[in-house]
Amino acid sequence: MKTYVCQVCGHIAFDQAPVDCPVCKMPIENFENVPDAIKKPLDPENLTEDERRHIPFIKIGRECNAISLNRCVDVQIKVGAIEHEMISEHFINFIDIYIDRKYIMRAMLTPKRSYPLISLCLNVTSGSLSVISNCTVHGNWRTKVALEET
Ligand SMILES: [Fe+2]
C-alpha cells in the first residue's frame, strides 16, 4: 500500500495522491510518496508502551437515537489505551477518518482543553473504517476495523 503525505497539512492519502488535498485543498504537487508515513507496531500481539499511547482504539455502536431517519453507526475513537498527553509541546494534533481508504473527515485537536477522543455518527453500515492519529512528536498511527454487522 502506497502512502502519499500532504506536505502542507499532513493528510495521508492511500494508493494515489488526490488532485487536491481533501483537508487543506492544496494541489497534488504538495503530496509526497512516503513509504513509512504510518508507524507500525513491531509486534502487534505485544504492544510497547509507546505504541499503546498512540494507536487509536475504535468502539462501534449501533444503538444511537440521535439520527432518527436512518440507521447510523456510532463510532468512538480514543487515541491510546494509555492516555496520551495534551500539552503544547506534545499532543495529538488530528484524527483522520477513512471508509474503504477514502477520506471522510478530520478532527483537529488542540492541547490543554481537549482529550484525544472523538465520537461520531456515520451514515454507512459496511466497509472498512481506518483511523489515523497524528502526534506532534511521534508521527502517524493507524487502526483499521470492519464495519460489517455481525
Ligand atoms: Fe506522542
User: What is the overall silhouette?
Assistant: globular
H-E string: EEEEHEEEEEEE
Q: CA-to-CA gap between the ends?
A: 27 Å
Query: Approximately what portion of the residues adopt beta-strand conformation?
Result: 35-45%
Q: What number is the mean pLDDT?
A: 93
- Reported by name, the CATH topology of the largest domain is Immunoglobulin-like
Query: How large is the count of helical segments?
Result: 1
Main sheet properties: 5 strands, mixed
Count of distinct strands: 11
The CATH superfamily name of the largest domain is SOR catalytic domain
Task: List each distinct ligand once.
Answer: fe (ii) ion
With strands numbered from the N-terminus, the spatial order across the biggest sheet is: 4-11-10-7-8
Q: For this entry, what is the oligomeric state of its chains?
A: single chain
Return the structural class.
mainly beta
Annotated CATH architecture of the largest domain: Sandwich
Uncertain runs with pLDDT below 50, 5 residues or more?
none
Radius of gyration (CA) equals 16 Å
Please identify the top-level CATH class of the largest domain.
Mainly Beta
Instruction: Work out the count of structural domains.
Output: 2
Percent of residues in helices comes to under 10%
